[in-house]
Amino acid sequence: MAKDYYQILGVDRKASQDEVKRAFRKLAHEHHPDKGGNESKFKEINEAYQALGDSEKRARYDQFGSTDGSQGFGGGGFPGGFDPNSFGDLGDLFGNFFGGGGRGRTQRGHDVETELFLSFKEAIFGVSKDIPLHKTNACARCGGQGAEPGTKLKTCDTCKGKGFTIATQRTILGSVQMRVACSACDGRGEKPDKACSECSGSGTTRGRKVLRVDVPAGVEDNMQMRVRGEGESIGAHGEPGDLYLRLRVSPDSRFTREGTTIYLKKKIGFSQAALGDTVQVDTVDGLVSMKIPPGTQSGDELRLRGKGVPHGRGRGDQIVVIQILTPTKLDKNTKRLLEELNLRED
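RE: above sequence
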């Protein structure tokens, strides 16, 4: 029976993608093995999110009961309880039915998703980050081959190196010959002469791995980065999954950002605005001098070229939004001078 991923995440089938994501984050935080959580539960939660966190995979799951559509005939949909999943790779089934040959598809490990938190400046200029992950990794002792170092792999006696065996399956179409992955060598076609003492021949171990990731300049909040081959490993049995990093950029108290443009509010005095001045302005590169033209109005935007976000063609600009401070405490002499100036608009 197919797993109910909605039930695993504790969300309704009509839940939005954001609701699914929030449920996953809460449960993943609660059950993360590094925080004393249940490892098998954490893996189940991650599997459910891989199915429901992507809108296309979720649509297939809603329609077929799986993310690849392979369950679409299950659950009694075909007479006699016919289950296409028992055939493994349908491409192999019909390839053999019409006289095809060769091994099946390469197996692939599960993808892994986690969050990576960045400061505003790290997102602007890029950064290298160490990310601790708790997952299945290729065995460090045997390099994922499953064989004790110094020993060799030998041809599997069961499948004679083919990686599959021929089985006969009774279906609604009658008896059909099909290829199935060799259970003795897990479809590899070869076995270790002596199993690795660390992983017992599986080629994988589960544990903590610290991965250094280079985040490019100019990333934005909620972007997703893919690191190929750093998901769950299945050793020499196939390819590892990918690691997906959801970027979380902390806001800055001084700056805001729109694309490659950075915005900053700058307060100046009434005299500076009227007469002009040179002031010091914060940028992500540090303090720089900026001229205030005479007659500057509150809300005017002054541009600092090349002080924005790096991009393929150079850097964006920084826009300084002027805010003119009106004095609140005036002595008698200042009041008299302002009254004489009579700075009013009709």
